[in-house]
Write a structure and sequence with these properties.
- With about 120 residues, the chain is mostly helical.
- The chain has one domain.
- Helix content is about 70%, strand content about 0%.
- Helix 1 crosses helix 2, helix 1 packs antiparallel against helix 5 and helix 2 crosses helix 5.
- The longest helix has about 35 residues.
- It is elongated, with a radius of gyration of 17 Å.
- About 25% of the residues are buried.
């Protein structure tokens, strides 16, 4: 198996795991937060369907200081980490971190593979 084929297969496995974690995190954690009237407005702006799932995962994954800086930036559209931490369990936070890390790794891995292929690294 060539190095390119091996890296692409690993990337496809990551993307598949991201899809599974996206559904699990959305159904387990974000659904619970949407039903809670105190956290319903703390999920951030939903540009497209499911975007609040990414907002919540980012707020629960990033360090609180970084998440607060993003929250108080000029756009101010991200989820509020303080209220989310109050109404989530350790399991919810671990699930968020697993999902968000795999999401970022699969995205940057895909871009890296395209750039490496464009530069002729696999020739």
């Amino acid at each position: 198996m060539s190095p390119r084929a091996m890296l692409v297969s690993i990337l496809i496995a990551f993307v598949f795991m991201v899809m599974v974690f996206f559904v699990l995190f959305g159904q387990i954690t974000v659904r619970k937060l949407r039903k809670n009237p105190e956290t319903k407005q703390a999920l951030g702006v939903e540009f497209i369907s499911g975007w609040d799932i990414l907002n919540v995962a980012q707020a629960l994954t990033l360090p609180k200081s970084v998440a607060q800086k993003i929250r108080h930036s000029s756009m101010g559209i991200e989820a509020d980490p303080d209220s989310l931490y109050r109404y989530t369990t350790v399991f919810d936070r671990v699930l968020a971190r697993m999902f968000y890390v795999l999401f970022v790794l699969s995205g940057t891995g895909g871009v890296a593979l395209v750039v490496l292929n464009w530069l002729g690294f696999f020739d």
